[in-house]
Amino acid sequence: MRAVQTREQPQAVLPRRHILDLNDFTREEIETVFRTTDGMKEILTRQIKKVPTLRGKTVLTLFYEASTRTRVSFEQAGKILGADVINLTTSTSSVVKGESLVDTGRTLQAVRADVIVIRHASAGAPYLLAQHLQCSVVNAGDGAHAHPTQALLDLYTIREKLGRIEGLKVAIVGDILYSRVARSNLWGLSTMGARVVLCGPPPLLPAGFPPPADAVVAGGPALPPVTVETDVDRALDGADVVMALRIQHERMKGGLLPSMTEYARRYQVTEERMARAKPGALVLHPGPMNEGVEISPDVAHGTQSVIQEQVTNGVAVRMALLYLLCAREA
Amino acid sequence: MRAVQTREQPQAVLPRRHILDLNDFTREEIETVFRTTDGMKEILTRQIKKVPTLRGKTVLTLFYEASTRTRVSFEQAGKILGADVINLTTSTSSVVKGESLVDTGRTLQAVRADVIVIRHASAGAPYLLAQHLQCSVVNAGDGAHAHPTQALLDLYTIREKLGRIEGLKVAIVGDILYSRVARSNLWGLSTMGARVVLCGPPPLLPAGFPPPADAVVAGGPALPPVTVETDVDRALDGADVVMALRIQHERMKGGLLPSMTEYARRYQVTEERMARAKPGALVLHPGPMNEGVEISPDVAHGTQSVIQEQVTNGVAVRMALLYLLCAREA
Amino acid sequence: MRAVQTREQPQAVLPRRHILDLNDFTREEIETVFRTTDGMKEILTRQIKKVPTLRGKTVLTLFYEASTRTRVSFEQAGKILGADVINLTTSTSSVVKGESLVDTGRTLQAVRADVIVIRHASAGAPYLLAQHLQCSVVNAGDGAHAHPTQALLDLYTIREKLGRIEGLKVAIVGDILYSRVARSNLWGLSTMGARVVLCGPPPLLPAGFPPPADAVVAGGPALPPVTVETDVDRALDGADVVMALRIQHERMKGGLLPSMTEYARRYQVTEERMARAKPGALVLHPGPMNEGVEISPDVAHGTQSVIQEQVTNGVAVRMALLYLLCAREA
What we know:
Rossmann fold; alpha/beta; five-stranded parallel sheet; 2 domains; homotrimer; four-stranded parallel sheet
């Protein structure tokens, strides 16, 4: 495999075969991802945004849940690096015949997939795959458990815009209980030295803050210390970064929220509330947004929003991860 | 970007970022598309039909409606030119999460798509996207409004087979009211100097001939002068080109047509009726065909039919358009 | 087209345009596929598993039925050889508009597909396509009729592991009546000189052993002589190869089987039953498996199982077939 030429780290290595969550990533590993992403971002800005780095490698996306940005982001990342990308989604696959996840994974490994990128509604599904396969497994979101590549792109965006993560106050606002994005960010942000405040209405906050039962994966450590807050004004007070999470309509049906209007009135990230954050504080959102619910349109598209940059950085981060995983074998 | 070598037009340029409809295409622009298509068609005939012209470019197809030929045609066009092509269809995307069209478009732009090819059930959807994006937008069919790449391939096929478009009589027969193909062809054919006759049963003809309300897109001019005819024999009389349109089964349900049989009896393009057209008149159909309804099998597969050539020319025309749009930035 | 360098057969040729079934394959043709597959398998083991052999060729997969392994296997095969691969599945195509199969095929040919790989629920569908098209058609499974590329990969795996096929006893156990895998294997194995025993409960065995009516394709010869057996112990006695077939849940509904448990008790391929086969006998399964029904987990993942090798060989065999079909025109 031809190496990507980046001045900073000619010999970037990640001492792991899989990307499952950030709970066991060291600060050094995250910084290796950052540096590799810097080089990838430069490639993305080229007139001809294509390199032969992963020529002859196969990236297989295995999505059991709907997705626009994550699947497309991985596909774009793989193709820009010259890999072959094969997509497999539930509705068009043998999954309908009831084959077990592990057998599906073994089959994909046997067709010589180098990396399997999996999204699944069940927490822990990527771990199950990783236990049984020799090829690399990347978790692209498993139930309410983890979404490590989203967290890495959030971390990268913060570091890119503010120059550092250490010592920052990051407020994450919304449906914390069911958010794999919040959970993976909590790990990554804590490891990088940020102070995290989780904020939402009590039914959407983890009770007593252990993670819910379905998010406990065998061998995983407990979540790091974190402040939990039900008052959004206090959560945003002096924040360097505000991350709004999507409110799922399903939460209404489940009786956890009285109405979208009531949620918006009490927790929407608005210009007025952003005034409590630090001047120049960043606004992030993992998308897709419900504008007018968890975030006001003026904030979503305002000068503090880095939501589009997050998407572009997502491609660069995933290029970096695919490169680092494939470089292991080279 | 490496230029495609074509003797005729070393410096082809299209002064537009988007392909939304043909209503504002000049004759010169259409001729630029024709000349560029000539070069692309030659590539299609090669043993190795692949060039690196759009290497490093990303063509993203965003289809909210079912399609065989149009999506495959764009995918083939992009791949032959060396672009990376990423497909996104409704059922497997975040669209199910209710993200707005514009937000989806912004996300796809942020993953560095160079061209978004969109098909949508709502007239005007591609315009909305184009208003908010910097990357190129190509309309691959929006509701009953427009289908400009289909019209361009029809125009190209006529010009290729008959040597000119100016002065020809073109009869378009079928469900005119709901046909985006008819509407875009009317613009293109009129601009190129053809005389267009629209023919169909009264309930499928536009009343008084303004386009129906849902086809009016902000800023668009009125349709050009055209002859409307309910008698198919008169419509075909002396025609140089006969274009049969697909009759949707849904029209029966809507009560606009008594039955397929009745439609076929009165409007089917048959050998007998084709005898009224000029000798050597062409038969076109945008596909997919209901053979035995709007067109008889002997005409569909007869010597005057250029229906297969239309499909091949569709790939060449879309190669030309992708090339011309991407060449703008190079 | 650049030739794949294989010492053994610099000039491999297959005197056919389509791969529809193995009933008319000669021993020489099958051996040509084997030798070409040897070369392809070497490519699959490379660090950079990519060659430009089919650059500029278009492989189009047209799947009217769900599939993981077969579609992915063809896609991987095409991409490794440098072809462009375009996927078309029922739910996202014009098929929903009711276009005829032949018209769909003509359209795909007109976009310049070089090979159409079709899976269809109706026996004979690939034959219909082949009758009307000039491009190559590969049958990736048609109803209960044939699945020639699966049979070729089974044959290749047996020959690779045991050194020969001639004279071997091969027991195929399960839902013989509805199995396209069994039917194509019967042809291929017989041609290569193996002795085949078909085994299953009486309702899943062909009565009097003509194939069922829907599997009779015009012009096809009768099936070769074969032993039919309802006792699995007798079937496995002294076998060199045991192939377990998937039991479809639908068979229960149809009243052909009392229960999965009853089937498993009487026909499951277990360690105990495998003791009757020759020492070192191979266990094959076309996948996806119902572990614990037609095959016990210890056998499925045991030392005699070559199920994962089958999957890898499937990619190599399909590379060989795509290469041989495209080489015809070069």
